[in-house]
Q: What sequence folds into this?
């Protein structure tokens, strides 16, 4: 078992599909460690990760059916199209609770911050969310994941805040920087 930092930031440029092979490798690793894996992104990205997961030897249909793999574009954490920190943390709390109840070691989650913050794109709560998420993770050792930041679509200040708030930067499937 490889020990990765539990709260990482992935900042990428270009096509979001370029980082899917690395995320797929991490999902495969976490599945073998008996973690439930949650991939939260747009419908097109959810569709795009499926073949990458298959290329890594994951039987996507089987893993989704048994609940080990959750591929979602759900945005119920938004309140009237606006990001709601408490709803998002509540969603993660419930997903972790359910994963542990179902016999998993924990929950590994990744999501694109553009999607998580919704169509309003009001990032005024970002730093508060990331700090609260870090505290949330510290209190729940069975939870880990990667926050994705698309540098081509997010303001530079948002990227800076993302870097500041994370203890580790995910670079690729074999390299992270503390």
A:
């Amino acid at each position: 078992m490889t020990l990765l930092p539990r709260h990482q930031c992935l900042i990428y440029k270009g096509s979001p599909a370029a980082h899917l092979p690395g995320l797929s490798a991490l999902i495969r690793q976490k599945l073998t460690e008996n973690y439930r894996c949650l991939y939260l992104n747009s419908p097109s990205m959810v569709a795009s990760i499926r073949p990458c997961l298959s290329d890594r030897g994951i039987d996507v249909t089987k893993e989704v059916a048994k609940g080990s793999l959750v591929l979602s574009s759900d945005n119920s954490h938004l309140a009237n199209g606006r990001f709601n920190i408490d709803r998002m943390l509540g969603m993660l709390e419930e997903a972790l609770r359910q994963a542990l109840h179902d016999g998993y070691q924990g929950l590994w989650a990744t999501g694109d911050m553009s999607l998580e913050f919704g169509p309003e794109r009001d990032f005024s709560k970002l730093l508060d969310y990331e700090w609260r998420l870090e505290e949330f993770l510290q209190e729940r050792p069975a939870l880990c994941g990667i926050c994705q930041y698309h540098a081509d679509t997010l303001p530079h200040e948002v990227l800076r805040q993302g870097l500041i708030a994370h203890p580790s930067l995910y670079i690729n499937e074999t390299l992270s920087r503390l």
